[in-house]
């Protein structure tokens, strides 16, 4: 029998999950649950309200939660965990322990299994950090993000007076990547390692110098970063900057014995952040389904799922073709 998938919340990530489920030979999408009425899905799969969720008990194996991390998942993941095994992409790193504890309590009481914070960061990048640090205990780890669109920073620029539209790219600084790849261990943090590149559409009568100054002095967003502001037309923004690309690098530079150096590098170059994140969630939905079949209950992360469990291949096939 196929793994029966439900989606809760229908935005960019949900459409990525929907597309990825179509590619899986062992899954089917049962429905989408939304706070809004009358939405249409890309695949034509039926939509339901949040109140309908409990009625699907026994008809859905894993619910993929696609709400936003800022306010939705903190509430929705424990709520849906009462009825179903769930997976989410919660990416507010500082609040992961709190979210884990809330979900774990509900899941243990309900005897369900929920995997939180899947995606690429947290998610695939987290796995690479664990592998690299376990293999090279003596060394230094680095994470760089980009080149990619930061939705949060783009929104923050759009809120400035006189700004009509904006896109902000986070760009890793090549000189640090090169140094690490050459076996050096430069002293670089997130601020020093990234450039913030802004493309801004200003109103015709707006004071561009003032807008640029407001961007560069915005606390928690741009202060501390090298920031470049480019003013462009709406046509240029729509033509050249409409995608949601992202990606980044996890690197570890270390040594096994004095002077014997090793560099581990994992990189992602994503045309679409939500489509890739959705693909990771779907693969791990399979892993979670198998974990639940093995009797797992409570809250989990990507660290708890064996790689073989996310694959569509059998253990024999994996040994023959992927070892
Ligand atoms: P969206 O803003 O597109 O969707 C979030 C929620 O907003 C949806 O679940 C939906 O809920 C509601 N919504 C969507 N579109 C509309 C609309 N037109 N009008 C009103 N409400 C709408 O966010 P994303 O899908 O882009 O991202 C979701 C989360 O994924 C992010 O908050 C981020 O935390 C996480 N993420 C995690 C990553 C990782 O690597 N771990 C990477 C990328 C993202 P409803 O249908 O109920 O109204």
Automatic annotation (TrEMBL):
Entry-linked SUPFAM superfamilies: Glyceraldehyde-3-phosphate dehydrogenase-like, C-terminal domain, NAD(P)-binding Rossmann-fold domains
Top-rank EC class of the record's enzyme: oxidoreductase
Pathway: Amino-acid biosynthesis; L-lysine biosynthesis via DAP pathway; DL-2,6-diaminopimelate from (S)-tetrahydrodipicolinate: step 1/1
Domain of life of the native organism: Bacteria
Name this polypeptide is given: Meso-diaminopimelate D-dehydrogenase
Species name: Veillonella hominis
Alphabetized InterPro entries for the sequence: Diaminopimelate_DH_Ddh, Meso-DAP_DH_C, NAD(P)-bd_dom_sf
EC numbers, comma separated: 1.4.1.16
Taxonomic classification: Bacteria, Bacillati, Bacillota, Negativicutes, Veillonellales
